[in-house]
Amino acid sequence: MAQLTRVSGSVGLITLQSPPVNALSAAVRQGIVDTVQRALSDPEVKSVVVCGQNGIFCGGADIKEFGTNMSGPPLVPLIHAIEVAHKPVVAAIEGIALGGGLELALGCHYRIAHSKAKLGLPEVTLGLLPAAGGSQRLPRLIGVPAALDLITTGRHITAAEALKLGVVDQVTAHSTVDVAVKFALSVAGKPLDGRRISSLPCPRPPNMDALFEGVMKKVRQSARGAIAPIACVQAIRAAATLPYDQGMERELELMASLFTSDQARALQYIFFAQRAVARWSMPSGARWDTSKPRPVHKAAVIGLGTMGRGIAVALAQTGLSVVAVETQEKQLMAAKQEMSGMLERGAKRRGVAPAFDKIRYSPDIKAVADVDLVIEAVFEDMALKEKVFQQLSALCKPGTLLCTNTSGLDVDHLASQTRSPELVVGMHFFAPAHVMKLLEVVYGSKSSPQALATAMQLGKKMGKVSVAVGNCRGFVGNRMLKPYSEQAFFLLEEGATPELVDGALEDFGFPMGLFRMSDLSGLDVGWRVRKVDGLGKSSGASGQQARIRQGRRYSPLGDVLCEQGRFGQKTGRGWYQYDKPGGRVGRPDPWLHSFLEEYRAQHGLVARRIDHQEVLERCLYTLINEGFRILEDGIAAGPEEIDIIYVFGYGWPRHRGGPMFYASMVGLEKVLARLEFYQEAHPDVPYLQPCNLLKRLVASGSPPVHKWREVVKKLHSQL
Ligand SMILES: C[C@H](O)[C@H](C)C(=O)SCCNC(=O)CCNC(=O)[C@H](O)C(C)(C)COP(=O)([O-])OP(=O)([O-])OC[C@H]1O[C@@H](n2cnc3c(N)ncnc32)[C@H](O)[C@@H]1OP(=O)([O-])[O-]
Prior knowledge:
Bound molecules: (2S,3S)-3-hydroxy-2-methylbutanoyl-COA
Radius of gyration: 28 Å
Structural class: alpha/beta
Shape: globular
Distance between the termini: 46 Å
Strand content: 5-15%
Number of strands: 19
CATH topology of the largest domain: 2-enoyl-CoA Hydratase, Chain A, domain 1
CATH superfamily of the largest domain: 2-enoyl-CoA Hydratase, Chain A, domain 1
CATH architecture of the largest domain: Alpha-Beta Complex
């Protein structure tokens, strides 16, 4: 919908009307066509201003329409009609001008933006490219290098940067519509030739071929298999080398190759999944919109190790007062220094003053008596955490939320150490905590909806993608990682090498394969957890029995390496070899290959050829299978929670939509069949036992992923 009113005598004001972001749905597009025609044919109207209702210009094409039979007037001729108009058209940009919204503004003859507005062409983040002339007009307006940056990254820019780049003509801190109307009055009747961007020549940067080769190489590397960024470069190259009309044909052709692609579907699924997980619910029926969060004005962090430092900085950067507690004096001093640096660098990136004064450092836990929320981030040891929760329960004022940053220990057990278990939740951050977007918010069996609502709201305030999950060993992310890494170890036993396994996972799109990641985070971290679980001691014995623990197949490979002090990058030796301890670049290690051969010989194992497909099927399908168990257990309310956790916290390639979405793309029947195939080959590996929910979904015709949440809900209501 769009409305035309005449203001200031001779200005036609067209207002886009489709809350919440005035997306260019069929109805809005029709409204624009109608109002532009009326404004251009009304002799009283000398110039036109286009703006959006509710202080928002336009969020672009209506993404909800993509999966449907799209109707209504197409965007390209709509924008063309504005550009060729004989009356000046001014875009008054408030709030956001993104995607088709910015393309609409680029069709206008002038653009005036509010100082707080954000602009961009983020289509690439949805697996697409700017297909309403953006890839052809933007390079003509701001040059090829700047257009390449904005379109291949999809980043949002501020009005100030847009002015500097030449995307907008003026920035105002006042009412943008008023300023635009005044401006429209001033340009009425003026010539528009130079204002029609499509008729401008596209500036050809020096060494253009080299520039495009360089950018394409960089984009291919960072894309890790995503196709949209590459198509974006190709579209801009068309702008730089072809006349506008031919460039537009190329843009349309490239868009056609992306629009129905699995990757576009995956990325748009993630867009909506990210919004769906914000609408959380608990098995009790409590929901995001019925649970009122408690106000948090002052917070505290207990333990200033790597995680504690990042969490305290992320809290302070929201403007909250933070008490940072570390009982070890030396550690406290070191933390203070490092955190000041993190605050300084963060402030520089955001163009604000560093929040040094927001953090009060203390060696004494009593300093947290008056805070509203505490996040415990001490060493991952249950006995130590129990003691801290007992102290906090005695110290803190009534109503204080007690949160733990444990990455998998029992939240209910920690809650039982306090006098108010309903005020205890897990807030599982990911390293580095002031950078990583994901936050797993874990509610225990006694956690109140209000406690969960408060933690989720704080997560949003910290700029995190917060996902509410139930309490179980390893929560969602780490619980699913166990079968994934177990299979990787078994594949080494059966003939694979770390390079082969990592190669398959990195070709799939992970930034780092499992063994490279293990070397980065340190083999000793997993070893410590296995020892707590009574596993991590290699008996040195040989044969099958040596590889059975707690009645199931177990690979002591990692334990043996740790017993030899091979902890990864930190010791310069792990699954790969590094130049020196702390080295970052891992190279295949001949020692490890011969160690694997000796190990197989010692255990009577015969190496066989293993290909990438087997690596992916065994590592990813067991992870997915555990995802179905998590849905069955009600730990996650829907597949969206699992997929957002893996995309934002575990490096699952976004253009593959997350493990559960990927399973729906592969086909649940195939996932089930392959799991049954491998389970038959490895009956001593319970993680290969297909989950009943998976079987149930296949038996009911493998409904699409967006239907699973309802299936899970019905399943639990029957329990
Ligand atoms: C031809 C052309 O070349 C191509 C092909 C295109 O143009 S492709 C499209 C390009 N445009 C985009 O990529 C912009 C996508 N949107 C955003 O980045 C953000 O939304 C936002 C604009 C920065 C606001 O963020 P927010 O945090 O303040 O609120 P929100 O919760 O995110 O959003 C509020 C509500 O609006 C919904 N929404 C937002 N943008 C939408 C869009 N473009 N289409 C449909 N719905 C949209 C969103 O799902 C949510 O709904 P619900 O969950 O309440 O039911």
